Amino acid sequence: MHGTVELILNSALLWIFLEATWTVLVSILYSFRIPWIFWGSLIILIGLKLVRIPPPHASIVNEVLGVNPFFIGKEIHTTENQGDGERYCMSVIAHRGGGYDYPENSLSAFQNSKEKGCTAIEFDLVLTKDNVPVLYHDVTIERLTGQKGILSEMTWDQLKELDITFNHPLRNKFPKGEKIALFKDALELCLNNDQHIIIDIKEKRLDVIQVVLDAYKENPNLFKKAIVSSFNPMIVYLIRRKEPRIVSSLAWRPYYLSRESYSGINGPGPSRSTNPFKHLAACIMEILYEWALPSFVYYIVGISAILLHKDIVNLRVIEQWHNRGIRVMAWTVNLPSEKLHFSRLFKITYLTDTLLAEKHRVHNI
């Protein structure tokens, strides 16, 4: 269905383009007047300028993300200082703290990342039914805990004793289990460990905006250590509208709105909806958003980085985003061969679920 919808939309866009071109030519050659498309474009341009939130200054972005590995060439493999100085480079990010090695989004995973020398972690932020901010990725709790339930419909009291190591392949490594982490506890641990943070907002409710703003207010060091990210540009925009000093990014993958997963080898996963009309609407929306994101959404939101699915990253994509002043980060890169490919050929930051065999990357720039 997605391919058919895309073909229909492209046909409509081609017709609009041809009709607009004909109208412009008629206006100029026969009527000798400025075509309406000029005035319309001018109005849109002014509107974009008015609603845009400029990204933080490059010096602030570099303090949060470090120097861009894409521009430092072979130096990334020879310099040994990955501290908070001018040479810091966020080359490797522990995705959910490194969920293959330790329970994902857990305090023990973040501590393990620190001990492995990884100075940057990513975690997922959601809200419970009673608006307690916690770290969790899925909509339901079954995959990690073995229990049934939708997290957003459960209170913190119902969640706080659940063991998120229940289905972990290395469960025997954690005899005491592991609990769902509170957002405030995760921030405290990461800041105390001098780790840089990607706060990936999975929550759809707008209440999360104030949660993030309050966190920055209570922990001013986050302005130098953290980046706010989401698949939802409106969430990031509303956060930055109230606090434009926050460094931000957007995440994207093909078929995000219509399909539950995506792989470059296997293609799109199962549909998010069994309702054909909802699926059709999702297909239309994601085709439009795929065009809008690199056209003007990034500009309006004022992002400093883009988190892209690893299977759609290539040198051309990296160049296009760098021309817009946006860094590219790839997720999720787990195979050793892929890690070498992304670090040595593409020279970009990547997120990984495992820090095994990462010593040469997490300790050096």
TrEMBL record:
<keyword id="KW-0812">Transmembrane</keyword>
<feature type="transmembrane region" description="Helical">
    <location>
        <begin position="12"/>
        <end position="30"/>
    </location>
</feature>
<dbReference type="Pfam" id="PF03009">
    <property type="entry name" value="GDPD"/>
</dbReference>
<dbReference type="GO" id="GO:0006580">
    <property type="term" value="P:ethanolamine metabolic process"/>
</dbReference>
<protein>
    <recommendedName>
        <fullName>GP-PDE domain-containing protein</fullName>
    </recommendedName>
</protein>
<dbReference type="InterPro" id="IPR017946">
    <property type="entry name" value="PLC-like_Pdiesterase_TIM-brl"/>
</dbReference>
<keyword id="KW-1133">Transmembrane helix</keyword>
<dbReference type="GO" id="GO:0006644">
    <property type="term" value="P:phospholipid metabolic process"/>
</dbReference>
<dbReference type="InterPro" id="IPR030395">
    <property type="entry name" value="GP_PDE_dom"/>
</dbReference>
<feature type="domain" description="GP-PDE">
    <location>
        <begin position="90"/>
        <end position="362"/>
    </location>
</feature>
<dbReference type="GO" id="GO:0008889">
    <property type="term" value="F:glycerophosphodiester phosphodiesterase activity"/>
</dbReference>
<keyword id="KW-0472">Membrane</keyword>
<dbReference type="GO" id="GO:0005886">
    <property type="term" value="C:plasma membrane"/>
</dbReference>
<feature type="transmembrane region" description="Helical">
    <location>
        <begin position="36"/>
        <end position="53"/>
    </location>
</feature>
<dbReference type="GO" id="GO:0070291">
    <property type="term" value="P:N-acylethanolamine metabolic process"/>
</dbReference>
